[in-house]
Amino acid sequence: MTGLLLLNFLACEEGVAFSWEEARKFHIGETVYYLDGFKDPDSLFSQDHLSWMVQFKTEEGKNTQRASFIL
Hints:
Blueprint lengths: L1 E3 L4 E5 L10 E3 L4 E9 L12 E7 L6 E4 L3
Antiparallel strand pairs: 1-4, 2-3, 2-6, 4-5, 5-6
């Protein structure tokens, strides 16, 4: 499923722990391809809304990204 971003956010490639240095900034209007949404069992907030993750690919077809969203 194709999505058009409605907010700016930061995300790291799948398998890379989040860090400000490794994160890519995504901007309003960019196109991404939704792959999956799931609750991250390894999250410190596993019982909280912050443990929801969205997995997607970039428009350029680059590696899978993951981002945590408040749903």
